[in-house]
Amino acid sequence: MTYVDGYIVPVPKKKLAAYRQMAKKVGAIWMEYGALSYVECVAVDVKKGKWTSFPRSVKLKPNETVIFAWATFKSRKARDAVMSKSMKDKRSIRIMNSKKMPFDGKRMIFGGFKTMMEFGV
Prior knowledge:
Blueprint: E1 3-12, H1 16-32, E2 37-42, H2 54-57, E3 64-73, H3 76-88, H4 90-96, E4 109-114
Antiparallel strand pairs: 1-3, 1-4, 2-3
């Protein structure tokens, strides 16, 4: 079974194109180093819930949208290797050190998950 890193990110709507460009570069780097897949999704049907929801989880502002993304890896060990290599890559360093990050990283939610079951893979 695969290992999955998941992300929920609040992105200002006016910075969505810049976020897409950044994510495209990051995804390419991760794939180059061994990720099995990389997916970025933009919210189209995520209503604010009474207690919990994607918008509440990132304290979504009216001018923002939610990005739901994930990357899959052969195993956690493989993920750790991909991340180690990508964090040392000059392209990643340039992206992460940019003063123009197109989102508020303090409100990003992320975590790693061991796959429990898979269908249609």
